[in-house]
Each structure stands twice: as structure tokens, then as C-alpha cells.
């Protein structure tokens, strides 16, 4: 398995940045709030592809929605191109021209009554495009790999394959010439034979257009094939982050190790985590992973002298800068 072609090393100011981001949803009937995003720092630099990885329910989709301005944070801030994100209608409209969402289910993203042309042109019409609409739609379809584009103008979603529908969704994002794509499980609903084509397309768009991307996925194999950097999320927080090769060949957090162990190419033994992730309205003290941690359960944390810290002391939050960091008492004890 060969990692994706790397982008130039990230330097300078990030394009998108989150600092101290929290998103909480009120509980029912006076129950505690669910802390879906619970203190996240994350940077995405120009031309960089970051994979946000974790189990279902860990908060990664809520984090992506907060970065898009679809959910207003309870606390913390999002900045884009050096400016804080504002939540007025006009500001968000301008922001969403520069940051576009690509959803996992192209069938659900496309109106079955709209032709491909109308689906791709919709963003132009919403944002008041003043140029040649037909040329813009054709250019977006061609960049998404649907050539000749005119052949697809009058087709409907049901007349397309799953891969073609996903390319139409990507074209609908590209037509506004964004600087950043947020792709939520972009190949989860596609056959294995088509997945590689869509991932190659995203890499080509980065190379040709300088696009940045946040790819939300539960699949570390996908991250290996497309990302420059990985951020591993558990119960509302990023618990490990760093370059894709480092994270996926030498993981430091026990949760990352467990996620990797289920990949077919994994050389180690499979790690079966006990139980389900805790309720985000009742996050345990100390390290939030300790109730499922195979290292703590196996005595490794005791041997390193950090078992009490795992159960009672918060290991902190990676600062989002892109350097390799881990929120784990045991990993820090081993390094020390």
C-alpha cells in the first residue's frame, strides 16, 4: 500500500483554523448537554488534504458541519483565510462560495427531477454568477472527469452510475471555484472499483487547482491513500494527529492502534475494543478513552506508572498545528 503523493510541506498561515471549538446539543427533559465536539484545535493549510478519522458517533461530522458554518459553535472560533467566521446570512453565503461540501450519498445529494446541468448550475444561480453559465458548468463537469460534458447535460441522476453521480456532486462543488472541499465519507457508498477513481480525482484536483480538503472518514485505509495528515477523533476530541505515514505506521494512541488493527494489511494482531463509546453527555474523567483502553486493561499503563493519571487526569488537546501530537499519558510516558 503506497501513501498518496504528498503536498508541499505546509508552511505559513493555515487556510482554515479551529481553536477551542465546542458544539453541545441540549439534553431532553433537563438531561446534561451532549458534547458532540468538546475542544478541538485543527488547521488545514493551502493545498493540504487532512483526513478526519474515527468511529461513527465520535463527532467528526458535527465538527465538519461547524467548520462549514452549518452549526454555530457553543464556544471557540473558526477562522478562514485569517478572518473569523461570522454567522450572518451574507457572510455565510460568501464563505460557502469558497468552502464547499461533498456528501457521501450522491443519490441523496441530487434532486432526481433535475438534470445534471441544473444540478451543477444550482450553485451558480444561488450565488449570482455573472459569467457564461454553460461554459462554467461544462468546465466543472470536465474537471470532475465527465467528458465530453455536453453529453451529460440533459441526463438525470437515475441514468448515471454511482461513480458518475459522485462526479456530478463534485462538479457542483467545483463550479464555484472553491479553495477548500469538505468531503464527508466521499466514497463510502461506491463499489471498490470506483473508489480509487474518485480518490485519484480528488488528488488530481489538488494538484491542478491547489484545492485543500478535509476528508471525513471512518476508513484509515482511505486516509492512507489520499491524506497528507491525519487527525484521529474520539468522543468529541482529536486524540492523535500527524503526518499520514507516521500515524499509520507508528501510531502512539491505543485508539489509533485499534482502528488500524482491523485493516487487512495490518501486520499486528487485531484489537477488539470492549463496549461502546461513552455517552457524549456523560464523558468519563481523565482520558476519555480509558474505559475501553486495551493498554490500561492489559496492565501497560500500570507498568508505565500512569494508570491513575489515565483514570483521573485529562491528557489535554493537540494544538492543531500539524506537528505529530498525541493526547495519551501512556504514550508520553513511553517517549519519556
Automatic annotation (TrEMBL):
Gene Ontology terms for molecular function: ATP binding
ABC transporter domain residues: 18-260
Family matches, as Gene3D superfamilies: P-loop containing nucleotide triphosphate hydrolases (3.40.50.300)
Record key words, sorted: ATP-binding, Nucleotide-binding, Transport
InterPro entries: AAA+_ATPase, ABC_transp_ATP-bind, ABC_transporter-like_ATP-bd, ABC_transporter-like_CS, Oligopep_ABC_C, P-loop_NTPase
Family affiliation: Belongs to the ABC transporter superfamily.
Protein name: Oligopeptide/dipeptide ABC transporter ATP-binding protein
Organism field: Streptomyces fimbriatus
Lineage of producing organism: Bacteria, Bacillati, Actinomycetota, Actinomycetes, Kitasatosporales
